[in-house]
Design a protein that fits this description.
This protein has 229 residues and is α/β, with parallel strands linked by helices. Helix content is 29%, strand content 26%. The strands form 2 sheets. The chain has a 7-stranded mixed β-sheet with strand order 5-4-3-6-7-8-9. The longest helix is centred in the first third of the chain and has 13 residues.
Length: 229
């Protein structure tokens, strides 16, 4: 994948980018995220090392390091970098690297790539088969190996690989799915947007006697849908 009209680049140059997708442009985004309250240096480092311009179409590549959501087809978007950083920061707070992370909503694979760098193994589910195939090909070509993929219904989770130390949901259900709560390990944490109109980011922790829930920022995500397509 390259930029239309640009010279042919080697694999390393494609990953590093040029012009509006260069490492310098990427670092300006990281400085902006830090200024806007993202504190985890390990999360910022993961975003800096991830070539977001390779996770969007050629027409959008020049906007890849703006702090905004972008379309990726199939009425889906790649999340705003600040939201990706914030959700990851909340998910991994006080954790040097969870063993098993479940991601619901693979999309283009950008959030998956971030999680891959910060955990031992990522299990990612996507309901849209075409998106999952594209994400798998992209992530494997970029060298991300500690990821398992499932074309399935995110509301059902991934029962055969439960429990999960962490769960991140990249679409907004009206209510927290019961199956995902059941698949969260004791002491585990789930971060997800919730709401059918007004949406809010929530952090759910499983404790010995139940679940503790915190409400964080207002957010806007595509709705979480059942089934496969």
């Amino acid at each position: 994948m390259g930029i239309r009209g640009a010279p042919v680049m080697s694999g390393g140059a494609m990953r590093d980018g040029i012009g509006m997708t260069s490492l310098r442009t990427r670092r300006r985004l990281i400085d902006r995220l830090r200024a806007n309250g993202i504190q985890s240096e390990k999360v910022l480092s993961a975003l800096e090392s991830t070539p977001r311009h390779l996770f969007v179409g050629e027409a959008m590549a020049h906007k890849a390091y703006e702090d905004t959501a972008l379309p990726i087809g199939h009425q889906q978007t790649i999340s705003q970098p600040w939201v990706v950083a914030r959700m990851t920061e909340l998910l991994l707070e006080d954790d040097d690297g969870p063993k098993k992370v479940l991601e619901v909503g693979t999309g283009c694979g950008y959030q998956t790539a971030i999680l891959s760098q910060l955990s031992r193994w990522v299990f990612t589910i996507e309901r849209i088969g075409a998106l999952l195939d594209q994400a798998r090909e992209r992530l494997q070509s970029l060298g991300y190996r500690n990821i398992s993929y499932l074309h399935g219904d995110g509301f059902a989770g991934w029962e055969s690989n439960q429990p999960f130390d962490r769960i991140l949901v990249a679409a907004a259900p009206a209510e927290i799915p019961a199956a995902l709560l059941a698949q969260l390990a004791e002491g585990g944490r789930m971060v997800l947007p919730v709401g059918s109109g007004h949406q809010e980011l929530r952090v759910v922790t499983r404790e010995a006697r139940g679940f503790h829930e915190e409400v964080r920022e207002a957010v806007r995500f595509v709705p979480m849908l059942k089934g496969q397509s």
